[in-house]
Amino acid sequence: xxxxxxxxxxxxxxxxxxxxxxxxxxxxxxxxxxxxxxxxxxxxxxxxxxxxxxxxxxxxxxxxxxxxxxxxxxxxxxxxxxxxxxxxxxxxxxxxxxxxxxxxxxxxxxxxxxxxxx
Length: 118
Description:
- The chain has helices at residues 21-28, 32-41, 59-74, 79-87, 95-117, and strands spanning 19-20, 48-50, 54-57.
- The protein is mainly alpha-helical.
- The protein has a single domain, classed as Multidrug-efflux Transporter Regulator, Chain: A, Domain 2 (Orthogonal Bundle), CATH 1.10.1660.
- A hairpin with a 3-residue loop joins strand 2 (48-50) and strand 3.
- The longest helix has 23 residues, at 95-117.
- The radius of gyration is 15 Å and the shape is globular.
């Protein structure tokens, strides 16, 4: 689902536990109102809501949003088609999500190596 070429232009996900809707918007190149809409359409998106109904997304949420973005914008799926692809039986065994996670971990480890070499 997440082809490496499609998401190279997106910034790496920082090593934080929670992200605000504005941060996720920047990380995924999607406007905040679109993220709110996708929460209604995709049951996998469940950001934590705290005081004032503020949304806080976790790393897994950001990866799912990037998957949704790739399906809708790069592969041309409809909302219903993307929802079906994410909830279908092949969604559990999709290796491209694992590849995205491995790529992200590799980038984070490279950052740690840079810090340690200073």
